[in-house]
Amino acid sequence: MSDATGKGGRADDWQGGRFGAHAECILAPNPGPMTLDGTNTWVVRADDFGPSVVIDPGPRDGVHLAAVAGVAGDVRAVLLTHGHLDHSEGARAFADRVGCGVRALDPAMVYGDEGLHDGDVVEVDGLAIRVVGTPGHTSDSLSFLVPEGGAVLTGDTLLGRGTTVVAHPDGQLGAYLDSLQRLRVLAESQAVRSIWPGHGPVLDDAVGAVEHYLAHRAERLDQVRAAVAGGATSAHDVVRVVYADVDPVLWPAAELSVRAQLDYLAAHPS
């Protein structure tokens, strides 16, 4: 889910496609201000002909789910980066279609016998997908490291364009900043070279992408501090100052982010 200040670009900027030997992205037909070009559904497999794992089937759109099934073939598991409907709504219908379960951190999203937790490894035909807990955008947010591809699937934790919403109360800025630091460590260690996001295009400079996000969050916090020091007494007041150049139709989403920022500043006054 893109931040209200994210650069949405044109809907035809990004169409998905094949990335490396292990991944293909099928773009869901749900573009919008908060979803950019649409939700990225990822099919990950060891090779062109082997079984696959599908990550974030996206909305419950029959045409989209049929397209994913056509690419994915023998699906062994569906994984969810988090439970927002633009990523998860079609998961159970898709799992029923291909005959597998749905694995997620939130038990309410699990369909079958297995959930997901930080540190888990999902293996399919010799390809290992490592689960990395990255809460903050939501409390149930996960990322999926594909070491053989040098990539991490970040869901909404890090997008291909713009920045993401950390929406109060489920979104927690402190946890989100910790998750960005965890991704930075992976990127700096060269375990991750590229980002396969939940919305927007693939990013080939993982270190640069994470650094951009950290810098953006620091800048936003400075702007919120300044607005409060200037007399803003509510999240709505802060939005009117900090997001003055943003279409007011997006202010409700911005206000949720500001509430998360104010909570963080209250806990970290310095």
Gist?
The protein has 270 residues and is α/β, with parallel strands linked by helices.
Blueprint (SSEs and pairs):
Layout: E1 16-19, E2 23-27, E3 40-45, E4 52-55, H1 62-72, E5 75-79, H2 85-88, H3 91-98, E6 102-103, E7 121-124, E8 127-133, E9 142-146, E10 151-155, H4 173-188, E11 194-197, H5 206-229, H6 235-242, H7 251-267
Helix pairs in contact: 4-5, 5-6, 5-7, 6-7
Could you please describe the fold and organization of this structure?
The protein has 270 residues and is α/β, with parallel strands linked by helices. It has one domain: 4-Layer Sandwich (Metallo-beta-lactamase, Chain A). It is built from 7 helices and 11 strands. The strands form 2 sheets. Strands 1-2-3-4-5-6 form a 6-stranded mixed sheet. Strands 7-8-9-10-11 form a 5-stranded mixed sheet, covered by helices on one side. The protein is globular. 48% of the residues are buried. About 3% of the residues have low confidence.
Order of helices and strands: EEEEHEHHEEEEEHEHHH
Q: State the separation between the terminal residues, measured CA to CA.
A: 29 Å
> What is the CATH domain class?
Alpha Beta
Shape verdict: globular
Largest sheet: 6 strands, mixed
Strand ordering within the main sheet: 1-2-3-4-5-6
- Count the E strands: 11
Alpha-beta content class: alpha/beta
With helices defined by DSSP (H or I, 4 residues minimum), what is the helix count?
7
Mean pLDDT: 93
Radius of gyration: 18 Å
In percent terms, what proportion of residues is strand?
15-25%
Give the uncertain stretches in residue-range form: 4-12
- Total of domains: 1
CATH architecture level-2 label: 4-Layer Sandwich
CATH superfamily: Ribonuclease Z/Hydroxyacylglutathione hydrolase-like
Q: Enter the CATH topology name.
A: Metallo-beta-lactamase, Chain A
The amount of helix comes to: 25-40%
